[in-house]
Design a protein that fits this description.
Length: 178
């Protein structure tokens, strides 16, 4: 679905540390939103819809929920990579995968993590609340993968990070591809 507005532009500043400046996103008209929802009617039971990022402010508060309900009604699967209430509200619909980073997971459950081990109960909670799988990315500490009652930890090779743009998106793509 094409939109009239410009897509958002995000800036990453590199120095000793990385700083992100993320724009809000385009204004989506009611007509454009309706077109997208109509596209959801074409989904089939083997399709996977990836809902990623924050909902543009011009869309209704329940837009992600409405999309998820449409996906589920078509017996398709969905992945959700967002934060806060939208992520929490999606869990009841049994997403194929959720992918918060460790900061987003801590914010979701109003806590902080001092170690990788401290993250594990909260990743398990995502599964208990409905997610089929959860990937919690932890930057230089790797990632945790939760599936059923099992938890796997992946480490990352040591080196110099040149650019972290798209790292989480690549994790989702790898999961879906596999």
């Amino acid at each position: 679905v094409s939109i009239e507005g410009d897509t958002r532009i995000n800036v990453k500043l590199k120095s000793d540390s990385e700083t992100e400046l993320n724009a809000q996103g385009p204004v989506i008209t009611e007509s454009e939103a309706t077109q997208l929802m109509e596209q959801m009617s074409l989904l089939m039971d083997n399709d996977i819809v990836i809902l990623s990022g924050n909902k543009p402010p011009s869309l209704p508060e329940d837009f992600y929920q409405n999309m998820i309900e449409k996906v589920v009604s078509r017996k398709a699967n969905f992945v959700i990579d967002t934060t806060g209430p939208e992520l929490l509200n999606a869990l009841v619909h049994k997403p194929l995968l959720v992918k918060p980073n460790h900061h987003e997971l801590a914010d979701l459950f109003d806590t902080t993590f001092e170690s990788v081990e401290a993250i594990i109960p909260y990743g398990k909670k995502l599964i208990a609340l409905g997610a089929q799988h959860a990937l919690v990315s932890m930057a230089g500490d790797g990632a945790l993968f939760f599936t059923g009652k099992k938890v796997y930890q992946a480490t990352v090779p040591k080196g110099i990070v040149k650019n972290s743009v798209g790292a989480g998106d690549s994790m989702i793509a790898g999961f879906i591809g596999a």
